[in-house]
Design brief:
- The chain has 260 residues and is of the alpha/beta class.
- The protein has one domain: Rossmann fold, CATH 3.40.50.
- The chain is built from 9 helices and 9 strands.
- The strands form 2 sheets. The protein has a 7-stranded parallel beta sheet with strand order 3-2-1-4-7-8-9, sandwiched between helices. The protein has a two-stranded antiparallel ribbon with strand order 5-6.
- A hairpin with a 6-residue loop joins strand 5 and strand 6.
- The longest helix has 26 residues.
Length: 260
């Protein structure tokens, strides 16, 4: 796929972090970019800076996602690129005992479902609706109509203590990559997934420097946190290389997460 001013893209979670870096990288190549996010102030600022459009979207809502695609397509036409970076996390042991009074509690099922709805169902919702739109496009070289990149995490393969829900949500994203690629193969739409390691996103930037230094030291090489631009670079490679399909790729400096 040619990444240039002839195409449009939607980036979920595009107001900050990995999504913002990807939106900026696409826009730098001339792509017309729509940002889906709940952070309206940041999203509007990024969209203005890259000449794109911001759509306030909650990925857990059919109505909100439909409205976002309608606004994006009214501004830029049918997207041929979707990059899904919207997501969140939480941490709690499946069951645990209080050190103070010995009381026992378990992971809230409400909290578990909340995370699954955002990271897994929300991702699939955007993928399914975008792919349906891509089916209306005329096929290009190799019969290609579109390309999609999803975001999982290394926690999909080596989740730490307290990450049962997060790992399940990201493992689900990995697990649906190949079936979706097979679902869409006859329509010329590709899909791949990136599994980021420890990245220096806004969430991480709020951590104490000592914590960040320890995390960086745990990465085999290079001994640092990942940069969002490195995620964006891999996303663009997946979009451009038309033989890249149905793959789940770790981007993590060779880290394998310890139990805690």
């Amino acid at each position: 796929m040619n990444i240039d001013n002839t195409i449009s893209a939607v980036v979920t979670g595009g107001s900050s972090g990995l999504g913002e870096a990807t939106a900026r990288a696409l826009a730098a190549r001339g792509v017309k970019v729509a940002i889906f996010d709940l952070q309206a102030d940041k999203g509007e600022a990024v969209a203005a800076d890259i000449g794109g459009v911001f759509c306030e979207v909650n990925v857990t809502s059919d109505e909100s996602v439909d409205a976002g695609f309608a606004k994006a397509r009214a501004a830029h036409g049918q997207e041929s690129v979707l990059v899904c970076c919207a997501g969140t996390g939480n941490a709690m042991k499946t069951a645990s005992r209080s050190k103070e009074d010995g009381s026992i509690k378990h992971f809230s099922l409400e909290a578990f479902n909340w995370l699954i709805q955002i990271n897994l169902v929300g991702t699939f919702r955007c993928v399914a609706k975008s792919a349906a739109g891509m089916l209306t496009l005329e096929p290009g070289e190799d019969g290609e109509r579109g390309a999609i990149v999803m975001t999982a995490s290394v926690a999909a393969e080596d989740g730490q203590m307290g990450q049962a829900a997060y790992s399940a949500s990201k493992g689900g994203v990995v697990g649906m990559t190949l079936p979706i690629a097979r679902d869409l193969m006859s329509e010329g739409i590709r899909i791949n997934t990136i599994l980021p390691g420890i990245f220096n996103t806004p969430l991480m930037q709020g951590a104490p420097q000592a914590v960040k230094d320890n995390l960086a030291a745990s990465v085999p090489f290079p001994k640092r946190l990942g940069n969002a631009a490195e995620y964006a670079n891999l996303a663009l490679t997946m979009l451009e290389n038309s033989y890249f399909n149905g793959e789940d790729v770790r981007l993590d400096g060779a880290i394998r997460m310890a139990p805690r």
